[in-house]
Amino acid sequence: MNIALWIVAGLLAVVYLAAGLAKLAQPYEKLTANPNMSWVEDFSPGVVRMIGTAEVLGAAGLILPRATGIAEVLTPLAALGLAVLQCGAMVVHYRRGETKNLPINLVLLLLALFVAIGRFLEWV
Question: Are the beta carbons of 114 and 12 closer than 8 angstroms?
């Protein structure tokens, strides 16, 4: 089970790190021009940067605490935070009628919950 949790956490970390860095590194105008990121138009540049920061920190939180043995409770908390982020993403996409994005959001949500629950159960 530990190996499965590491694999899923690693995959999620790569996805969220890439997504977060894209939101942080690209100008707001470039993000709004991307057809896959049309939801950005509904938010201010600061909120988009905040979402990107949350994704980068969540990615780090999935790996670093467990890998270093320091504050390991942060790993399931990071996974739970990313699950909450996906719930918000699903609401935004649903309200915008972007239902093609919902299956991806659901998979990311379930994977984050798998890591959160798996790592929390290690504490019990």
Answer: no
| pTM score | 0.93
Alpha helices in the chain (DSSP H): 2-25, 28-33, 45-68, 74-95, 102-121
Q: Say how far apart CA 119 and CA 115 lie, in whole Å.
A: 6
Residues contacting residue 94 through CB under 8 Å, at least 6 positions apart: 102
Mention every residue, 6+ apart, whose C-beta is less than 8 A from residue 104. Answer: none
Residues 6+ apart with CB under 8 A from 1: 118
Residue-wise pLDDT for 47-89, tens only, equals 999 999 999 999 999 999 999 999 999 999 999 999 999 999 9
From residue 68, alpha-carbon distances to 6, 64, 78, 112, 115 in Å are 13, 6, 15, 20, 17
